[in-house]
Amino acid sequence: MKLKNFLQHSQNVTRLSEQETSVVSQQEPTNTSNESNNALKNRLSLPWVRHLLLLTGLGVLLTVIAVYIANYAYKQWQYMQSYLETDNAYVTAEINPVTSRVSGIVTEISFNDNQVVSPGMILVKLDKSNYQLSLAQAKISLELAKQQAALAQEKIPKITIEIPSFQPITDNKKAQIQQQAFIRKRTLQLQALNQQKKINEQQYKVALATFAQKQVEVKKAELELNYTNIATAVGGIVGNKNVQVGQQVLPGQTLLSIIQPRPWIIAYFPEKQLQKIQPQQKVKITVPAFSNHQFQGKVDSIAFMPQNNLTSNSASTNSLDSSSNSLHEIPVKILFDESSIQGYESRLAPGISAVVKIKTK
């Protein structure tokens, strides 16, 4: 009985010992892991480690920025190889001045600013009274000259004097003397008549010339009277109004301008870029006044003679040193595509700034 109890007690002790060993074996790895984490945290808390991580992150950021800049620079290089751009450009159009051919006082103005007018439309009227009097006087002078010419024509003699032929008288001296005297008289009469005829013919020619001159004067007076109605020879948009009712105008004075509704662009490019510009190349046109609309066009022509252009709109031109004034910028004429300016013809006024991009490739 005692032996049996001893064996059971020994088994229980063995079991307890195995359980303790198992618990200890499970706790040892956990303690080891905690110690490793603590050591790692201590190492990461060191200043030089944080500095290394910061430098690594900064290096990655700089690499990304460098790649972005390189990509942007490459795209810009590709763009510059395909396009030429300038903001030193402006809109222009054909401008026809309307001038007065005669002097006078303005009595009527038949247009408004920026009005669309058609060819032949009377825009300004001058006082006609003086020109009406001049025309009446010219017509009276013409009628007088006509009558004088008719009188001069009537004075030309139509009768001719003939000298009869006589047989010479040889046997009667007295009859011979009478015959010679008669012939001499008739000869003198004929000479006088011819002389008067020449004078009358000359007077008639003068009268005819005077009549023709008076006809010209009448025509001139009629024209001057018509010139008091000042009309436009072309259609377009009224601009640059410089006239008022009651104003005294002089011959040749510009009263207004007619702007043609067919604008184009004049763009200035450095002469070193001209080798890339050719007629018919496509152009993108931006007008700051209408920035929401993209205009299209094409190169029409390039000026052969360079022009000094010291009033550039470009900031880059303003930054040039004064010693570079000897360089030239060449004007290039660019035409709008008709489809792209529909609805803008009357709004693209001469002088408006523009930005152009010529596609060279």
What would a concise description of this structure say?
By secondary structure, the chain is α+β, with helices and mostly antiparallel strands. The chain is 45% helix and 22% strand. A hairpin with a 7-residue loop joins strand 11 (282-286) and strand 12 (294-302).
Structure description:
By secondary structure, the chain is an alpha+beta fold. The protein folds into three domains: 74 residues; 108 residues, Elongation Factor Tu (Ef-tu), domain 3, CATH 2.40.30.170; 159 residues, no CATH class. The protein is built from five helices and 14 strands. β11 and β12 form a beta hairpin. The longest helix has 55 residues. The chain starts with a helix and ends with a strand. The N terminus is likely disordered.
